[in-house]
Amino acid sequence: MTAGSKGLAKGSLAVLAALFVLTTAHAPTLAQSAASIEAAKKEKEMQIDEQPGHEPTVEEGELPDVYRRQEVFFRTSEPAGTVIIRTSDRFLYLIIGPNRALRYAIGVGRQGFQWSGLERISRKQEWPDWRPPPEMIDRQPYLPRFMAGGPGNPLGARALYLGNTDYRIHGTNLPETIGQAISSGCFRLVNDDVIDLFDRIPIGTRVIIKQAAQL
Amino acid sequence: MRLSIRLAVVLVATALAANVASSSVSAQTLKTVQERGALNCGVSQGLIGFSIADDKGAWSGFDVDFCRAVAAAVFGDPSKVHFVPLTADERFTALHDKQIDLLSRNSTWTMGRETELGLVFAGVTYYDGQAFLVPKSRNLQSALELDGSKVCVQSGTTTEPNFVDYFETNHMKYEIVRRETAAETLAAYRDGQCNVLTSDESGLYALRLQLPRPADHAILPDVISKEPLGPAVRQDDMQWFNIVRWVNFAMIDAEELGVGTNTLDAARQSNKPDVQRLVGRNGDFGKQLGLANDWASNVLRTTGNYGEVFERNVGLHSKLGIPRGLNELWNNGGIQYAPPIR
User: Fold this and answer.
1) For residues A151-176, b (16+ Cβ closer than 10 Å) or e, as one string?
2) What value does the mean pLDDT take over residues B288-294?
3) Hey, which of B33, B104, B111, B335 has its CA 20 to 30 A from A106?
């Protein structure tokens, strides 16, 4: 190897290292903020404060017809048992057979618009505890730092965790957020629906998240 | 070597272009439309969600929006349409006799209509098919559970043999209740003379709205026949055919690429080649059609992409509440698929 090429190799290593630092340090946050700006532009977000302690009445929990859990025609090459979440139409589909899915209406939080791909259910929790993230406490300083699971808990009756991520499918104590893009959370269903889904899908279930095309 | 191949391609393309130009001398629909200053578009006389005029004579609907989209592509202005309401019997004659430039009237694409009537379908804007309306109280999930049903059907249509064939193939018993008109068929169902009504899916959603309690009735997700609906033009004008066909394709491609009324400005800044070609920032696709290069932008800005038009007029959140079903994009489980613009 000549001195010249060694120098070149060293130089490119340094560039590579710098790139690596840049990529690891900044790229995820940049990508994330670009994604959330894009999401914010596209979606009219429902600005709603979490209301820990609010216990929805039976009437509140009753969804309009189109948002009720129902069996629908759904073509996919994914096998039965797979969950497909389509954020743009605010539905979660559980594939139950050829051309058939159970459709659940969802509310999609800002987090829920930031990632697409395949994950698996890694954990299932009944009446999960709630720890509001720091950015939510910034916005609503009066929120409790911790709230034990129960009917007034913003995470609702069940939580289904996706892989090693912070993403989860959960219930809600604010049924009116179903069908909306909302500022906080991930994928929320009314409690009756999340209990139904929870009982149908085991740990290891494949969950595919699909987002609208990015420009 | 590479250069000379490119030169050859250019020469062939030029020859082809000249050829197309000379063969369309006899039928200059685009020129006629431009000189007239408006598109004559044949629509149905009144079909909720598809084409209907309000009391001020303003037209709206899925088929109506397609007329507007073609006008937007040609003039940059979706309002330059003269709507011509036509009966089912008049529609093809009106196209043949040049009363209209385009027929956008929930018409099924069949072989006979192309071989016998001298017209050509420019694509499928709506995959319709025969389906079943049932009371929700029957608690049915699938058409295969209809064994022993009393079936209301309008006589004299292909609907009856279609459903009879379906029931017999699947070993289900049935009783037929025939009525002359759609209204009488619906009345029989409403009065409980039957417990299933069968017709084309889009029609069932419209009929359901006329029932005293629409929410008590469901349309089963199974579709048992093919009724591909689409716009038709005369066979003698390839240039016009291509314009109509590519307006449809551009609207479908746009939905796939995430380009619509709200995102068009962002799309014009996009670095994606697919998006750049669609909005006319790259290539001469509009010019090659005989239009401006922002032809598709004009459609998307004013009328929207395929999904927007579907949602607004007939979709889940519209009055009709029809799920996308087969009309989802191909990459979302449906069969709506458009060739790429490139």
Assistant:
1) ebbbbbbbbbbbeeeebbbbbbbbbe
2) 97
3) B335
* Nearest chain A alpha carbon to B333: A75
Structure tokens at B107: 């018409």
Q: Do B115 and B232 share a domain, yes or no?
A: yes
A77-103 residue pLDDT tens: 899 999 999 999 999 999 999 889 999
Q: How far apart are CA A71 and CA B140, in angstroms?
A: 10
> Measured between CB atoms, which of B257, B321, B325 is closest to A66?
B321
Predicted-complex ipTM score: 0.75
Same domain, B275 and B292: yes
pTM for the complete prediction? 0.81
Nearest beta carbon to residue B256 from set A71, A73, A213: A213
**Which residues 92-151 on chain A approach chain B with CB closer than 8 angstroms?**
99-100
Is the predicted pLDDT of residue A13 greater than 60, yes or no?
A: no
State CA A162 to chain mean position distance: 9
Is there a contact between B325 and A214 if contact means CB atoms under 8 Å apart? no
**B residues 253-292 lying closer than 8 A (beta carbon) to A:** 256-259, 262-263, 266-267, 269-270, 272, 275
> Same domain, yes or no, for B48 and B123?
yes
User: Which pair of structure tokens corresponds to residue B62?
Assistant: 């899925």
Contact (CB, 8 A) for B313 and B65? yes
CATH number, domain at B67? 3.40.190.10
Nearest to A104 by CA among A54, A158, A50, A36: A158
Distance between CA atoms of B204 and B194, rounded to whole angstroms? 15
Q: Residue A21: what residue type?
A: V
Of A65, A76, A213, the CB nearest to B333: A76
